[in-house]
Write a structure and sequence with these properties.
alpha+beta
């Protein structure tokens, strides 16, 4: 499998080198129909390999084996040229797309990536402000009443406000029968163990508090938090690189949004709404249907 991946890598990573340029790089190591492969070509190709692929050419015979791969690449390249594949509209389009993406990548590196800096102080300040996010154990115990509609959930809330017991309503009304028999109690859960909407709502409540209607794919929940357990906070050294990565991503996004907003004011953008409305839906492969209201 690695040999196949390497062959693909060598083919798609072609960097043409003219005879004139090659002559400047010292004596050739091989020739393919007169086109020299120099030591500089060889070194450039080996440096461009990922680490796992480079290891395949270590040891006795490794250098010779890799030269064979470079020769294979040049043979395939010359055959593609001989067949005129570089003149095909599809190839020209692919090259233009690759050029566009490479330029965009270089632009973002210059304007965004190289300018965004996250200092050690930024990382420490974030840790100090969000220490509770780095607890090694955080468990919540909750009860819930699950119903099908928001209207039903609102009625449950009214009953609770009038003094009815949470557990009694859960036993009678909750469609989650497994927890209903326990008065709605679902026990303790940690991060990631329950649907995100439920977890987020429960995390925002203090012990004894009851939520408003919380929608999940199961229906509408009225949640009551009955206990919270919080473990020790992870040491700064253990989480600082996670924080740095998070802050870097946030700052890069903010910088990108700001940069793009500035460019949008600089360039005139027009959308042909009629043509767009009539154009083919690229996902479904059909023109969008008009609604009855149109």
């Amino acid at each position: 499998m690695k040999e196949i991946l390497l062959a693909v890598f060598l083919v798609v990573s072609i960097v043409a080198c003219s005879k004139k340029e090659a002559a400047k790089n010292g004596p050739y190591l091989a020739k393919v129909d007169g086109t020299p492969i120099t030591q500089a070509d060889f070194d450039r190709e080996i440096r461009s390999l990922p680490d796992y692929a480079r290891q395949m050419f270590e040891g006795p015979g490794g250098k010779e084996k890799f030269l064979g791969e470079v020769i294979n690449k040049e043979v395939l390249y010359q055959e593609a040229l001989k067949q005129g594949m570089d003149k095909s509209p599809e190839f020209i389009r692919k090259m233009e797309d690759a050029r566009k993406m490479a330029l965009i990548s270089d632009l973002l590196e210059k304007e965004i990536m190289s300018t965004v800096k996250v200092t050690d102080k930024d990382v420490r300040d974030y840790y100090d402000r969000h220490r509770n996010d780095f607890t090694t154990m955080n468990q919540i115990r909750a009860s819930h009443i699950l119903v099908k509609t928001r209207a039903e959930a609102e009625k449950v809330l009214e009953r609770l406000k009038k003094g009815e017991k949470f557990a009694e309503i859960a036993r009678k009304e909750s469609i989650d029968r497994a927890s209903a028999k326990n008065g709605g109690d679902i026990g303790y859960f940690s991060r990631g163990q329950i649907v995100p909407e439920f977890e987020k709502a429960a995390a925002s409540l203090d012990v004894g508090q009851i939520s408003g209607p919380v929608k999940t794919r199961f229906g509408y929940h009225i949640i009551k938090v009955t206990d919270k357990k919080t473990g020790p906070v992870a040491e700064f050294e253990r989480v600082k690189e996670i924080i740095r990565e998070k802050l870097t991503g946030q700052k890069q996004k903010e910088a990108f949004d700001s940069y793009l907003d500035g460019l949008m004011k600089k360039y005139k953008v027009e959308v042909n709404k009629e043509a767009f409305a009539a154009s083919k839906d690229s996902v479904k492969g059909t023109a969008p249907k008009k609604s009855h209201a149109e």
